[in-house]
Here is the input.
Amino acid sequence: CMTNEGQPWVSSVVQKIRLQLAQDPSLNYEYLPVLGMKSFIQASLELLFGKHSQVIVENRVGGVHTVGDSGAFQLGAQFLKIWRQNSQVVYIFSSQREQHGLVFQDMGFTIYEHSFWHSEQLCMDANTFLSVVEQVPDGCIFVIGNIGSCNLTPGQWAKLLAVMKRKQIFPFFDIPNQGLSTGDLEEDTRFLQYFVSEGFEFFCSQSLSKNFGIYDEGVGILVVVAHNNQFLLCVLSQLMNLVLALWQNPPTTGARIITSILCNPALQEAWKQNLKAVVENIMLIKEKVKEKLRLLGTPGSWDHITNQSGIHGYLGLKFEQVQYLVKKKHIYIPKNGRINFTCINACNIDYITESINEAIIFTKDSEKESSESR
Here is the structure.
Protein backbone atom coordinates (compact mmCIF):
# COMPACT_ATOMS: atom_id res chain seq x y z
CA CYS A 1 0.00 0.00 0.00
CA MET A 2 1.57 3.25 -1.17
CA THR A 3 1.03 6.91 -0.31
CA ASN A 4 0.28 9.68 -2.80
CA GLU A 5 4.01 10.49 -2.67
CA GLY A 6 4.90 6.98 -3.82
CA GLN A 7 6.21 5.82 -0.43
CA PRO A 8 5.04 2.79 1.60
CA TRP A 9 2.01 3.72 3.69
CA VAL A 10 2.49 3.44 7.46
CA SER A 11 -0.29 4.04 9.97
CA SER A 12 0.43 7.16 12.03
CA VAL A 13 -0.39 5.14 15.14
CA VAL A 14 2.35 2.65 14.26
CA GLN A 15 4.92 5.43 14.00
CA LYS A 16 3.91 6.71 17.44
CA ILE A 17 4.16 3.28 19.09
CA ARG A 18 7.44 2.46 17.38
CA LEU A 19 9.03 5.56 18.96
CA GLN A 20 7.62 4.71 22.40
CA LEU A 21 8.95 1.16 22.29
CA ALA A 22 12.38 2.34 21.14
CA GLN A 23 12.61 4.53 24.25
CA ASP A 24 11.16 2.02 26.74
CA PRO A 25 13.96 0.99 29.15
CA SER A 26 11.85 -1.82 30.66
CA LEU A 27 11.83 -3.94 27.52
CA ASN A 28 14.10 -6.95 27.35
CA TYR A 29 15.02 -8.70 24.16
CA GLU A 30 14.79 -12.33 25.23
CA TYR A 31 13.62 -14.91 22.69
CA LEU A 32 9.87 -15.33 22.41
CA PRO A 33 8.30 -18.75 23.12
CA VAL A 34 8.26 -21.11 20.15
CA LEU A 35 4.57 -20.46 19.41
CA GLY A 36 5.11 -16.71 19.75
CA MET A 37 3.83 -13.82 21.85
CA LYS A 38 0.61 -14.92 23.59
CA SER A 39 -0.87 -11.43 23.94
CA PHE A 40 -0.22 -10.75 20.25
CA ILE A 41 -1.88 -14.00 19.19
CA GLN A 42 -4.93 -13.37 21.38
CA ALA A 43 -5.34 -9.79 20.17
CA SER A 44 -5.00 -10.90 16.54
CA LEU A 45 -7.58 -13.67 16.92
CA GLU A 46 -10.04 -11.22 18.46
CA LEU A 47 -9.42 -8.87 15.54
CA LEU A 48 -10.10 -11.68 13.07
CA PHE A 49 -13.19 -13.25 14.65
CA GLY A 50 -14.47 -10.67 17.13
CA LYS A 51 -13.90 -10.74 20.87
CA HIS A 52 -17.15 -12.60 21.59
CA SER A 53 -17.00 -14.99 18.64
CA GLN A 54 -18.22 -18.54 19.10
CA VAL A 55 -14.79 -20.08 18.53
CA ILE A 56 -13.08 -17.80 21.06
CA VAL A 57 -15.75 -18.35 23.73
CA GLU A 58 -15.53 -22.12 23.19
CA ASN A 59 -11.72 -21.97 23.30
CA ARG A 60 -11.28 -23.92 20.09
CA VAL A 61 -9.21 -21.40 18.15
CA GLY A 62 -5.51 -20.72 18.56
CA GLY A 63 -2.57 -19.48 16.58
CA VAL A 64 1.12 -19.67 15.90
CA HIS A 65 3.10 -16.44 15.50
CA THR A 66 4.77 -16.88 12.10
CA VAL A 67 7.50 -15.22 10.04
CA GLY A 68 6.79 -13.29 6.85
CA ASP A 69 3.73 -13.35 4.61
CA SER A 70 4.31 -16.94 3.54
CA GLY A 71 5.33 -18.32 6.95
CA ALA A 72 1.80 -19.43 7.83
CA PHE A 73 1.46 -21.28 4.52
CA GLN A 74 4.85 -22.90 4.97
CA LEU A 75 3.94 -24.11 8.45
CA GLY A 76 0.40 -25.15 7.51
CA ALA A 77 1.57 -27.06 4.44
CA GLN A 78 4.17 -28.90 6.52
CA PHE A 79 1.46 -30.00 8.94
CA LEU A 80 -1.00 -31.05 6.23
CA LYS A 81 1.70 -33.01 4.41
CA ILE A 82 2.08 -35.20 7.50
CA TRP A 83 -1.44 -35.32 8.89
CA ARG A 84 -3.52 -35.53 5.72
CA GLN A 85 -1.46 -38.01 3.75
CA ASN A 86 -4.54 -39.17 1.84
CA SER A 87 -5.24 -35.59 0.73
CA GLN A 88 -2.26 -34.47 -1.32
CA VAL A 89 -4.31 -32.42 -3.78
CA VAL A 90 -4.58 -28.65 -3.30
CA TYR A 91 -6.99 -26.32 -5.12
CA ILE A 92 -6.01 -22.68 -4.93
CA PHE A 93 -8.55 -19.90 -5.50
CA SER A 94 -6.82 -16.55 -5.20
CA SER A 95 -5.78 -13.42 -7.05
CA GLN A 96 -2.09 -13.82 -6.23
CA ARG A 97 -1.64 -17.51 -6.67
CA GLU A 98 2.08 -17.82 -7.26
CA GLN A 99 3.15 -17.54 -3.61
CA HIS A 100 0.72 -20.13 -2.30
CA GLY A 101 1.23 -22.47 -5.23
CA LEU A 102 5.00 -22.53 -4.87
CA VAL A 103 4.82 -23.34 -1.15
CA PHE A 104 2.52 -26.32 -1.64
CA GLN A 105 4.31 -27.42 -4.80
CA ASP A 106 7.62 -27.59 -2.95
CA MET A 107 5.92 -29.83 -0.37
CA GLY A 108 5.02 -32.32 -3.09
CA PHE A 109 1.31 -31.51 -3.35
CA THR A 110 -0.53 -31.65 -6.67
CA ILE A 111 -1.68 -28.10 -7.37
CA TYR A 112 -4.69 -26.79 -9.33
CA GLU A 113 -4.95 -23.01 -9.54
CA HIS A 114 -8.09 -21.01 -10.28
CA SER A 115 -9.14 -17.38 -10.09
CA PHE A 116 -12.43 -15.82 -9.00
CA TRP A 117 -12.01 -13.21 -11.75
CA HIS A 118 -14.03 -13.81 -14.92
CA SER A 119 -12.00 -12.21 -17.70
CA GLU A 120 -14.90 -12.09 -20.17
CA GLN A 121 -17.61 -10.79 -17.83
CA LEU A 122 -15.11 -8.50 -16.03
CA CYS A 123 -16.31 -9.38 -12.53
CA MET A 124 -15.68 -11.70 -9.61
CA ASP A 125 -17.47 -14.93 -10.44
CA ALA A 126 -18.68 -17.17 -7.62
CA ASN A 127 -20.18 -19.69 -10.05
CA THR A 128 -16.74 -20.85 -11.18
CA PHE A 129 -15.79 -21.56 -7.59
CA LEU A 130 -19.05 -23.41 -6.90
CA SER A 131 -18.72 -25.57 -10.02
CA VAL A 132 -15.13 -26.53 -9.16
CA VAL A 133 -16.12 -27.46 -5.60
CA GLU A 134 -18.76 -29.81 -7.02
CA GLN A 135 -16.13 -31.63 -9.08
CA VAL A 136 -13.11 -31.91 -6.76
CA PRO A 137 -12.18 -35.19 -5.08
CA ASP A 138 -13.23 -35.83 -1.48
CA GLY A 139 -10.81 -34.77 1.24
CA CYS A 140 -8.80 -32.27 -0.81
CA ILE A 141 -7.39 -29.00 0.53
CA PHE A 142 -8.82 -25.66 -0.60
CA VAL A 143 -6.68 -22.53 -0.32
CA ILE A 144 -9.13 -19.62 -0.56
CA GLY A 145 -7.79 -16.12 -0.99
CA ASN A 146 -10.49 -13.55 -1.73
CA ILE A 147 -13.88 -15.22 -1.43
CA GLY A 148 -15.25 -12.23 0.46
CA SER A 149 -15.14 -10.15 -2.73
CA CYS A 150 -17.45 -12.55 -4.57
CA ASN A 151 -20.59 -11.46 -2.68
CA LEU A 152 -22.20 -14.89 -2.54
CA THR A 153 -25.94 -14.97 -1.91
CA PRO A 154 -27.26 -16.81 1.19
CA GLY A 155 -28.34 -19.63 -1.11
CA GLN A 156 -24.88 -19.92 -2.65
CA TRP A 157 -23.27 -19.93 0.81
CA ALA A 158 -25.59 -22.72 1.94
CA LYS A 159 -24.78 -24.76 -1.17
CA LEU A 160 -21.03 -24.17 -0.83
CA LEU A 161 -20.87 -25.15 2.83
CA ALA A 162 -23.02 -28.24 2.28
CA VAL A 163 -20.80 -29.51 -0.55
CA MET A 164 -17.55 -28.79 1.32
CA LYS A 165 -18.84 -30.54 4.42
CA ARG A 166 -20.08 -33.57 2.46
CA LYS A 167 -16.77 -33.89 0.63
CA GLN A 168 -14.72 -33.23 3.81
CA ILE A 169 -12.80 -30.45 2.08
CA PHE A 170 -10.25 -28.74 4.33
CA PRO A 171 -10.28 -24.92 3.93
CA PHE A 172 -7.08 -22.88 4.24
CA PHE A 173 -7.96 -19.17 4.12
CA ASP A 174 -5.71 -16.24 3.30
CA ILE A 175 -6.43 -12.90 5.03
CA PRO A 176 -3.60 -10.62 3.83
CA ASN A 177 -5.04 -7.14 4.52
CA GLN A 178 -8.08 -7.11 6.79
CA GLY A 179 -9.70 -3.68 6.79
CA LEU A 180 -8.19 -2.58 3.49
CA SER A 181 -10.91 -4.10 1.34
CA THR A 182 -14.10 -2.38 2.54
CA GLY A 183 -12.63 -0.23 5.32
CA ASP A 184 -14.63 -2.32 7.81
CA LEU A 185 -12.57 -4.88 9.75
CA GLU A 186 -15.58 -7.04 10.60
CA GLU A 187 -17.05 -6.95 7.10
CA ASP A 188 -13.78 -8.08 5.52
CA THR A 189 -13.79 -11.35 7.50
CA ARG A 190 -17.52 -11.90 7.94
CA PHE A 191 -17.42 -14.96 5.68
CA LEU A 192 -15.35 -16.83 8.28
CA GLN A 193 -18.40 -16.87 10.55
CA TYR A 194 -20.21 -19.10 8.05
CA PHE A 195 -17.53 -21.76 8.43
CA VAL A 196 -17.38 -21.32 12.20
CA SER A 197 -21.14 -21.72 12.58
CA GLU A 198 -21.10 -24.91 10.50
CA GLY A 199 -18.40 -26.46 12.69
CA PHE A 200 -15.58 -26.54 10.12
CA GLU A 201 -11.99 -27.13 11.12
CA PHE A 202 -9.66 -24.91 9.11
CA PHE A 203 -6.37 -23.04 8.87
CA CYS A 204 -6.07 -19.34 8.11
CA SER A 205 -3.05 -17.24 7.20
CA GLN A 206 -3.56 -13.89 8.92
CA SER A 207 -1.00 -11.35 7.72
CA LEU A 208 -0.80 -8.09 9.69
CA SER A 209 1.99 -6.37 7.80
CA LYS A 210 -0.06 -4.49 5.21
CA ASN A 211 -2.91 -3.17 7.32
CA PHE A 212 -0.49 -1.73 9.90
CA GLY A 213 2.13 -0.63 7.39
CA ILE A 214 5.05 -2.62 8.84
CA TYR A 215 6.04 -4.55 5.72
CA ASP A 216 9.66 -5.01 6.79
CA GLU A 217 8.56 -6.90 9.92
CA GLY A 218 6.59 -9.58 8.06
CA VAL A 219 4.15 -10.20 10.91
CA GLY A 220 1.58 -12.97 10.70
CA ILE A 221 -0.22 -15.85 12.35
CA LEU A 222 -1.26 -19.35 11.35
CA VAL A 223 -4.77 -19.51 12.79
CA VAL A 224 -6.07 -22.93 13.79
CA VAL A 225 -9.79 -23.60 14.26
CA ALA A 226 -10.57 -27.06 15.66
CA HIS A 227 -13.68 -28.97 16.78
CA ASN A 228 -12.78 -28.56 20.44
CA ASN A 229 -10.02 -27.44 22.79
CA GLN A 230 -8.49 -30.91 23.07
CA PHE A 231 -8.02 -31.18 19.31
CA LEU A 232 -6.67 -27.61 19.21
CA LEU A 233 -3.99 -28.36 21.80
CA CYS A 234 -2.94 -31.47 19.89
CA VAL A 235 -2.54 -29.51 16.65
CA LEU A 236 -0.63 -26.68 18.32
CA SER A 237 1.71 -29.24 19.93
CA GLN A 238 2.56 -30.72 16.55
CA LEU A 239 2.96 -27.29 14.99
CA MET A 240 5.41 -26.37 17.73
CA ASN A 241 7.65 -29.26 16.67
CA LEU A 242 7.56 -28.03 13.08
CA VAL A 243 8.36 -24.45 14.14
CA LEU A 244 11.51 -25.69 15.89
CA ALA A 245 12.77 -26.94 12.53
CA LEU A 246 11.67 -23.84 10.57
CA TRP A 247 12.52 -20.71 12.60
CA GLN A 248 12.49 -21.66 16.30
CA ASN A 249 11.46 -18.22 17.58
CA PRO A 250 9.52 -15.47 15.76
CA PRO A 251 10.64 -11.81 15.74
CA THR A 252 9.28 -9.48 18.41
CA THR A 253 9.12 -5.84 17.25
CA GLY A 254 6.17 -6.02 14.88
CA ALA A 255 4.16 -8.11 17.33
CA ARG A 256 4.81 -5.60 20.12
CA ILE A 257 3.68 -2.69 17.96
CA ILE A 258 0.46 -4.43 16.90
CA THR A 259 -0.36 -5.67 20.40
CA SER A 260 0.14 -2.18 21.85
CA ILE A 261 -2.39 -0.80 19.36
CA LEU A 262 -4.99 -3.56 19.54
CA CYS A 263 -4.99 -3.65 23.36
CA ASN A 264 -5.56 0.10 23.67
CA PRO A 265 -9.13 1.15 22.65
CA ALA A 266 -8.13 4.72 21.76
CA LEU A 267 -5.16 3.63 19.64
CA GLN A 268 -7.20 0.90 17.98
CA GLU A 269 -9.89 3.40 17.02
CA ALA A 270 -7.28 5.78 15.60
CA TRP A 271 -5.81 2.92 13.57
CA LYS A 272 -9.27 2.00 12.24
CA GLN A 273 -9.73 5.59 11.08
CA ASN A 274 -6.37 5.36 9.28
CA LEU A 275 -7.62 2.26 7.43
CA LYS A 276 -10.86 3.98 6.42
CA ALA A 277 -8.91 6.94 5.06
CA VAL A 278 -6.75 4.61 2.94
CA VAL A 279 -9.79 2.81 1.53
CA GLU A 280 -11.51 6.12 0.71
CA ASN A 281 -8.37 7.22 -1.13
CA ILE A 282 -8.28 3.94 -3.09
CA MET A 283 -11.91 4.44 -4.13
CA LEU A 284 -11.09 7.97 -5.26
CA ILE A 285 -8.13 6.76 -7.33
CA LYS A 286 -10.31 4.16 -9.06
CA GLU A 287 -12.96 6.78 -9.84
CA LYS A 288 -10.31 9.07 -11.34
CA VAL A 289 -8.85 6.27 -13.47
CA LYS A 290 -12.30 5.34 -14.79
CA GLU A 291 -13.18 8.96 -15.54
CA LYS A 292 -9.91 9.65 -17.36
CA LEU A 293 -10.36 6.56 -19.52
CA ARG A 294 -13.90 7.74 -20.33
CA LEU A 295 -12.65 11.21 -21.30
CA LEU A 296 -9.97 9.66 -23.52
CA GLY A 297 -12.69 7.72 -25.32
CA THR A 298 -11.05 4.40 -24.45
CA PRO A 299 -13.08 1.55 -25.98
CA GLY A 300 -15.10 -0.56 -23.57
CA SER A 301 -16.81 -0.08 -20.24
CA TRP A 302 -14.68 0.59 -17.16
CA ASP A 303 -17.24 0.16 -14.42
CA HIS A 304 -15.47 -3.02 -13.31
CA ILE A 305 -12.63 -0.88 -11.92
CA THR A 306 -14.84 0.81 -9.34
CA ASN A 307 -16.92 -2.32 -8.71
CA GLN A 308 -13.88 -4.06 -7.23
CA SER A 309 -12.84 -3.52 -3.63
CA GLY A 310 -9.41 -3.48 -2.05
CA ILE A 311 -5.93 -2.28 -2.90
CA HIS A 312 -5.52 -4.50 -5.93
CA GLY A 313 -7.88 -4.85 -8.86
CA TYR A 314 -8.09 -6.13 -12.41
CA LEU A 315 -7.87 -3.65 -15.26
CA GLY A 316 -9.68 -6.10 -17.51
CA LEU A 317 -6.97 -6.09 -20.16
CA LYS A 318 -6.07 -8.88 -22.55
CA PHE A 319 -2.65 -10.50 -22.41
CA GLU A 320 -1.48 -8.63 -25.54
CA GLN A 321 -2.52 -5.32 -24.02
CA VAL A 322 -0.63 -6.03 -20.80
CA GLN A 323 2.42 -6.98 -22.85
CA TYR A 324 2.17 -3.66 -24.68
CA LEU A 325 2.15 -1.79 -21.35
CA VAL A 326 5.17 -3.72 -20.14
CA LYS A 327 7.32 -3.63 -23.29
CA LYS A 328 6.34 -0.29 -24.83
CA LYS A 329 5.34 1.85 -21.86
CA HIS A 330 7.37 0.26 -19.04
CA ILE A 331 4.34 -0.17 -16.80
CA TYR A 332 5.15 -3.42 -15.08
CA ILE A 333 2.07 -5.36 -14.01
CA PRO A 334 1.34 -9.13 -13.92
CA LYS A 335 0.09 -10.77 -17.11
CA ASN A 336 -3.41 -11.09 -15.63
CA GLY A 337 -3.67 -7.28 -15.58
CA ARG A 338 -4.05 -7.00 -11.81
CA ILE A 339 -2.67 -3.70 -10.50
CA ASN A 340 -2.00 -2.07 -7.15
CA PHE A 341 -4.18 1.03 -7.39
CA THR A 342 -2.30 2.82 -4.60
CA CYS A 343 0.69 2.99 -6.95
CA ILE A 344 -1.33 5.38 -9.11
CA ASN A 345 -1.06 9.00 -8.00
CA ALA A 346 -1.28 12.56 -9.31
CA CYS A 347 2.20 12.29 -10.83
CA ASN A 348 1.57 9.24 -12.99
CA ILE A 349 -2.20 8.84 -13.50
CA ASP A 350 -2.21 10.66 -16.85
CA TYR A 351 0.67 8.58 -18.20
CA ILE A 352 -0.91 5.32 -17.01
CA THR A 353 -4.41 6.00 -18.37
CA GLU A 354 -3.05 7.32 -21.68
CA SER A 355 -0.88 4.21 -21.96
CA ILE A 356 -3.87 1.94 -21.30
CA ASN A 357 -5.83 3.77 -23.98
CA GLU A 358 -2.91 3.44 -26.39
CA ALA A 359 -2.50 -0.28 -25.66
CA ILE A 360 -6.16 -1.01 -26.34
CA ILE A 361 -6.30 1.02 -29.57
CA PHE A 362 -3.02 -0.47 -30.82
CA THR A 363 -4.07 -4.07 -30.21
CA LYS A 364 -7.51 -3.46 -31.78
CA ASP A 365 -5.85 -1.98 -34.87
CA SER A 366 -3.48 -4.95 -35.02
CA GLU A 367 -6.38 -7.40 -34.80
CA LYS A 368 -8.22 -5.53 -37.54
CA GLU A 369 -5.16 -5.59 -39.85
CA SER A 370 -4.63 -9.29 -39.17
CA SER A 371 -8.28 -10.03 -39.96
CA GLU A 372 -8.18 -8.04 -43.21
CA SER A 373 -4.98 -9.78 -44.34
CA ARG A 374 -6.69 -13.14 -43.94
The mean pLDDT is 92. The chain has 15 helices and eleven strands. Residues 83 and 96 are 26 Å apart (CA to CA). The first helix runs from residue 12 to 22.
